[in-house]
Structure formats: C-alpha cells, structure tokens
Design goal:
binds pyridoxal-5'-phosphate, 8-stranded parallel sheet, 229 residues, single chain
Amino acid sequence: MTPIAQNLLEVRARIEAACRRAGRDVAELTLIAVTKTQPVAVIEEAIAHGVGHIGENRIQEAREKLPELDAPVTRHLIGTLQSNKARFVPELFDWVHSIDRLSVAQELGRRARAQDREINVLLQINVSGETTKHGASPDEATDLATQVGQIEGLRVRGLMTMAPFTDEVAIIRRSFRKLKMLFDELQVADIPGVTMEHLSMGMSHDFEVAIEEGATMLRIGSAIFGPRR
Ligand SMILES: *Cc1c(COP(=O)(O)O)cnc(C)c1O
C-alpha cells in the first residue's frame, strides 16, 4: 500500500473514532483533501483512493494544476480570495470557503453569473480575533450573511474558521465552539438566501476536536500527504 493510501485509511479511521466518541454519524462529514503544493499525479492518486473533494488555497497554483485533472472531484478554494482573481474562480471551483468581505463576494457573484454558474460559499469568520488571521469578526457575521445572501450566483451554505495556531486543545476547542454557536444563531435567524448547513473547521492537527464541536467539512492536508514541500 502506498503512503497516501495508508494515511487516508488512518485519517478515515480517526474520523470514524471521533464520530463515535461524539455520537455523530460519519455521513455528516465531508473530508476535503488539501492538495496545495502537491503535484497533479499525487492528487490523482488520492482521488483513485476515494477522495471526492480537494482543497487548494491559491488561485495561481490551481490554474496550473486543476485543468490537468481528469478524475471528477469537487473543488474547494480554501485560501484568501482577492477581487482581482475572482474571475478565475467559476471555472476552477465549486466551493469558496473564504468569503470575508462584501466586495469580494460581489465580484465573485458577477463572475459566476457571467459564466452561468452558481458557487457555494462559506463565510470565513475570525473567531479568535488573532490579527494574523483573515475573516470577518463574529459581530459582522449577520450583516455579511444578509448581504451575501442577496447576491445572485452565490449560495451561502455555512461558515468556516481556522483555529489559533497552538497546541492547547482548550483554546482550539473554544474557537470551534464559538463558530458553532454563531452558526446556530444564523440558522435560527433564517436569513434569505442563506442556508446554514456546513461548518468548515478542523485541519490535520485539530480535526478530531472539530468533529466533537460540530464540524461538517474537514480540511486535511499534511495528515494525508505528509509534510508539504
Ligand atoms: C493548508 C490548509 C489546510 C490544511 O492544513 P494541514 O495542517 O496540512 O492539514 C486547511 N485549511 C486551510 C485554509 C489551509 O490553508
């Protein structure tokens, strides 16, 4: 068995174990294999081993690699998007996890409509307040959801966050829990054009905590592919 196949087995087993602990159904979870820095052949190997969703964080890199992919796979943009790159998104990606400002969403909506596409978007929230992190503040979330929900060509499907970079599980857990609370509030608010179905949180070093706190999309790179080059 190749290292990637082995790693995928292990990651899936850990996801299942975390679901059992949390009393959750593994079918609620989407594993997104984060393929940034990985060459096309490696991505194709992962797809051959059952990966159905991949995540890239940079438009330039995605433009070089994704058109080469033959296998069908759902594509997620997980990194920051600048307005001037939005025009590349509709042909490359099905989902964008990193909407944190109205201006980018408006431009993306314009580009999606021009290409007759509908793009699924998540609002990226900076729950930890770390200034190094992108994302709207929790206080801005309702307004942003309301405004982005009105943009034709986009479908708001949930929220995304990145936990603080720390080994302290309590701090990581607190930030996931805050995002889940915000998610629940927005769900109850029932905002037009917004369906709160997905919580994108959890990476290689914290996905089990994320599952325990309600994640539905896991973005996992190095636990599958090994350290990035
Ligand atoms: C790189 C990246 C990941 C995956 O990180 P790993 O630690 O390799 O699992 C997840 N989310 C985002 C936004 C990333 O840029």
